[in-house]
Design a protein that fits this description.
single chain; alpha+beta; cell membrane
Amino acid sequence: MKIDKATVGKRYAKALFELAVEEGKMDEIYQDLLSLRTIYQEIPTLGELLSDVRLDKNEKRQLMDTLIKPFSGLMERFLEIVFEYNRMDDFLLIAAEYERRHDDKKGLVIGTVTTAVALNNQQKEALENKTASLLNYQDAKLEEKIDPTIIGGVIVEANHQVIDGSVKSRLDYLRSKLAR
């Protein structure tokens, strides 16, 4: 049975994260993953090239050697394993899951806030503080999205939860109650 890419990403990230915490290198590995993610964003086909079994092994090895040159220790060993099992095309999923685990361990929740108009700095900071408190985190970082169709209020999405305080959703709720 073939495992889907998201599951692969979670498994590899979990293993790397647990080892990084055990070795006291959680933040170092996090920074390494961020720098690798930048490379993957600059060369979108890199993962496919390194995982394609049809390509010449020596050429892939040379490319891999160049990629891992700046890394040592745990990160180098991890990348070698991912390469050996032809999972370099899953790297971005692995990095995203590691980042989620890292942020969670640091007490940081990442999410989005949708508003009808842009928030000022004070409003955004207050909303981040309230979101962190509601979700039992120390801190929250919310990416802003503007959607005039919500009319007013806010919709916060973080940690697989949605807090919908939009005027539109309240009006829709009232409509449904009145229609009965």
